[in-house]
């Protein structure tokens, strides 16, 4: 399915840094109206809102790639995409068990809301989801692949929480085939400097944490992109 209009990095109200109005139905509805064809909600270290997001996407006729954004032990953000909601939930459970026992303070960090497809709050996550988990980037990428998923380094061109900012380079032995970039044109100088392997596919998403940051225009998924097979 080449040429699909996409946004593959959106946060719901489950992420404490996202607004409470980033509900499953709101995300699906706004993206459908704006012209998206496939989205991915990738909350920090958890996939607990994906069942509701999947139901809303089905209702709106919108493609979904189940995912989450792991904050590794090194403080590197790693997008993990899966062929099913169940696989993403399993990844989230394993990541959550390695998080430090820091309770989230809603007045400091924001709420971590679990919702159903009617946007009703069904619970809140206790541990703070934005902390670094106990899995290093090699372990997190390996676990993602074991569960049938595809790991993608997030916002590789940013000065924080990216593999380049933390490691200095993107090691070839991590085996990544796709990277996400906020500004894809910045990757050529990185490749020229030897910081990135050649031949990587590049995606660029909104990383939206609020309704105001959701996209109104969408890039097209590269033809033959490996992520196509993960679309529900």
What order do the helices and strands come in, and which of them pair?
Layout: E1 6-10, H1 24-34, E2 38-41, H2 50-60, E3 63-64, E4 67-71, E5 77-81, H3 85-97, H4 106-109, E6 113-115, E7 121-124, H5 137-146, E8 150-153, H6 163-167, E9 178-180, H7 187-192, E10 201-203
Parallel strand pairs: 1-2, 2-3, 9-10
Antiparallel strand pairs: 4-5, 5-8, 6-7
* Strand order, sheet with most strands: 1-2-3
Specify the CATH architecture.
Alpha-Beta Barrel
CATH class reads Alpha Beta
Q: Which homologous superfamily in CATH is the superfamily?
A: Metal-dependent hydrolases
Structural class estimated from helices and strands: alpha/beta
SS element count, helices: 7
**Average pLDDT over all residues:** 94
Q: Biggest sheet, open or closed, and with what strands and sense?
A: 3 strands, parallel
Number of beta strands: 10
What is the end-to-end distance?
12 Å
Q: So what's the oligomer here?
A: single chain
Order of helices and strands: EHEHEEEHHEEHEHEHE
Notes on the protein architecture:
This protein has 232 residues and is an alpha/beta fold. The chain has a single domain, classed as Metal-dependent hydrolases (TIM Barrel, Alpha-Beta Barrel), CATH 3.20.20. 26% of the residues lie in helices and 16% in strands. The chain has seven helices and ten strands. The strands form four sheets. A three-stranded parallel beta sheet has the order 1-2-3, with helices on one face. A three-stranded antiparallel beta sheet has the order 4-5-8, with helices on one face. Strand 6 and strand 7 form a beta hairpin.
């Amino acid at each position: 399915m080449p040429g699909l209009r996409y946004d593959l990095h959106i946060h719901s109200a489950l992420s404490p840094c996202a607004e409470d109005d980033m509900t499953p139905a709101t995300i699906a509805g706004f993206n459908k109206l704006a012209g998206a064809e496939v989205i991915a909600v990738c909350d920090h270290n958890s996939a607990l809102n994906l069942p509701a997001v999947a139901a809303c996407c089905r209702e709106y006729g919108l493609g979904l790639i189940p995912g989450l954004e792991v904050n590794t032990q090194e403080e590197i953000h790693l997008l993990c995409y899966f062929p099913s909601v169940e696989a993403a939930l399993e990844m989230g459970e394993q990541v959550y068990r390695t998080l430090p026992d820091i309770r989230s303070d809603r007045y400091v960090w924001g709420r971590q809301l679990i919702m159903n497809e009617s946007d009703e709050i069904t619970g809140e996550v206790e541990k703070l989801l934005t902390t670094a988990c106990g899995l290093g980037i090699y372990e997190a990428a390996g676990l993602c692949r074991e569960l049938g998923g595809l790991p993608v380094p997030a916002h590789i061109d940013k000065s924080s929480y990216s593999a380049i900012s933390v490691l200095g380079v993107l090691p070839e032995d991590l085996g990544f085939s796709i990277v996400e970039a906020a500004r894809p044109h910045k990757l050529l100088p990185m490749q020229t400097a030897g910081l990135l392997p050649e031949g990587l596919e590049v995606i660029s998403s909104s990383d939206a944490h609020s309704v105001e940051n959701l996209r109104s225009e969408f890039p097209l998924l590269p033809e033959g992109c490996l992520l196509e097979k993960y679309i529900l």
